[in-house]
Amino acid sequence: MRPQSRARDLVSALRPPPRLVDWSILAVVVFEAVSGLVSFTIATPEGWPLFWAHRIAGLTLIFLLGYKLARVRHRLTDSTHWRPTTALSVVTLLAAVGALATGIGWVAGVDVRLAYWTLLSVHVGFGLVLVPLVVAHLTTRFRLPTRRDFHRRRTTIKYAGLLAGGALLFRAQTFLNEVLDTPGTDRRFTGSQPRSGDGNEAFPVTSWVADDPEPIDPEAWSLSIRGAVETPLSLSYDQLSPESECEALLDCTSGWYTVQRWQGVRVGALLDAAAAVDDAAYVRFVSVTGYRWSLPIEEAREALLATHVGEERLSHGHGGPLRLIAPGRRGFQWVKWVERVDVRRRGDPAQWIVTLVSGFD
Ligand code: HEM
Ligand SMILES: Nc1nc2c(c(=O)[nH]1)N[C@H]1C(S)=C(S)[C@@H](COP(=O)(O)O)O[C@H]1N2
Ligand SMILES: [Mo]
């Protein structure tokens, strides 16, 4: 037998019963959306398994969509089968293919932009709309799996086989990227691609959602340190001499990273000057736009509030006059245009919402 048809036989031997195919697609799509979103909070290499799980589970969708299409193709191609819900099915299919194509394209290093969206951001968009689409699509033809769909051994083997298939596709893809030396081989474990050089011009200006304040005049600006402190402080720009430096990696969820040397003041020095109380537990950094993020106080002490990058004054776009440098955190946590430091006894769950809506008037 030719190896090609043997592979095809193996793939069809792994096909779950039709109802399970539909529910497996939903399970994979939900897993992808959740693992994708959680991956946005991961910035240190111990988190790599989540990215691998996302890639491998994502690639199994190729098999599942193949099984599904082989079964329902005639309902799309033969107009006597068209129903009002057919349009929804087609849109769902397009979103699934879009999520797969953009994910795979990104991994190969395709670096096109749609307006100011990177291909990775487009991928996230497809992934997020896919969840409600698949749910709606399933409810138009709601069929729960029955006992007959499950065979204790066979079902387990099939799903293990599908995951192995996803892992194999992932290996093959990594191999191809290396042989063809695509730009994708340069990705960090988070999927981000490097931006090299030093200083303001070396990396892009990025807003997470809608933040876009007017440029800040450092003479009219001050930094206040308040909350759970004995001596609240207000410091002018001239009182913040860039006495500390650190090298830190900024990794944005839109898919790029850069390593820069940042100059500024150590947050620990500010907390000591303001005499943070003993039971203070978090430090919150607040932007002129309201955008904010908190760090546990021990971590915050080591963080930097930077006035300079690569010895240049921070440009407005990069958060001048002052921005947070939070090593080991994803870019969206590096608050720009900081004007307030709140020392607090509790964390700040609302920050997750505030970072999404700040900047909308
Ligand atoms: C729900 C549908 C989704 C599907 C089917 C999907 C599938 C995929 C696939 C197939 C890849 C490429 C894996 C490879 O070729 O090795 C990928 C990469 C990626 N996805 Fe998704 N994804 C989905 C949603 C999301 C969401 C919602 C996010 C983030 C919020 C996300 C974040 C990422 C990231 C960061 C990568 C790049 C990883 C790398 O460069 O290695 N995905 N995804
Ligand atoms: N106030 C504020 N700070 C912010 C953002 C924002 O939208 N508003 N974007 C964040 C995101 S998503 C990233 S990746 C970094 C980008 O920093 P840069 O524009 O200097 O590259 O800033 C972070 N700090
Ligand atoms: Mo970002």
Secondary structure layout:
Elements: H1 3-13, H2 18-39, H3 48-77, H4 84-107, E1 113-114, E2 117-118, H5 119-140, H6 152-179, E3 193-194, E4 222-227, E5 233-236, E6 244-252, E7 256-266, H7 267-274, E8 282-287, E9 292-296, H8 297-302, E10 304-309, E11 312-313, E12 323-325, E13 338-344, H9 351-357
Parallel strand pairs: 3-7, 4-13
Antiparallel strand pairs: 1-2, 4-5, 6-7, 7-10, 8-9, 8-13, 10-11, 10-12
Helix pairs in contact: 2-3, 2-5, 3-4, 3-6, 4-5
Bound molecules: protoporphyrin IX containing FE, ligand MTE and molybdenum atom.
Molybdenum atom (MO) binds next to loops.
Structure in words:
The chain crosses the membrane at residues 20-43, 49-67, 87-108, 114-138, 159-176. It comes from Halobellus clavatus. This is Oxidoreductase molybdopterin binding domain-containing protein. Residues 215-352 form the Oxidoreductase molybdopterin-binding domain. InterPro entries: OxRdtase_Mopterin-bd_dom, OxRdtase_Mopterin-bd_sf. The protein has 361 residues and is an alpha+beta fold. The chain folds into 2 domains: 3-191, no CATH class; 195-357, Oxidoreductase, molybdopterin-binding domain (Sulfite Oxidase, Chain A, domain 2, Alpha-Beta Complex), CATH 3.90.420. Helix content is 44%, strand content 18%. It has 9 helices and 13 strands. The chain has helices at 3-13, 18-39, 48-77, 84-107, 119-140, 152-179, 267-274, 297-302, 351-357, and strands at 113-114, 117-118, 193-194, 222-227, 233-236, 244-252, 256-266, 282-287, 292-296, 304-309, 312-313, 323-325, 338-344. The strands form 3 sheets. Strands 3, 6, 7, 10, 11 and 12 form a 6-stranded mixed β-sheet that branches. The chain has a 5-stranded mixed β-sheet with strand order 5-4-13-8-9. Strands 1-2 form a two-stranded antiparallel sheet. Helix 2 runs antiparallel to helix 3 (48-77), helix 3 packs across helix 6 and helix 4 (84-107) packs antiparallel against helix 5. The longest helix is centred in the N-terminal third of the chain and has 30 residues, at 48-77. The protein starts with a helix and ends with a helix. The relative contact order is 0.11. The structure holds protoporphyrin IX containing FE, the ligand Nc1nc2c(c(=O)[nH]1)N[C@H]1C(S)=C(S)[C@@H](COP(=O)(O)O)O[C@H]1N2 and molybdenum atom. Protoporphyrin IX containing FE (HEM) binds next to helix 2, helix 3, helix 4, helix 5 and helix 6.
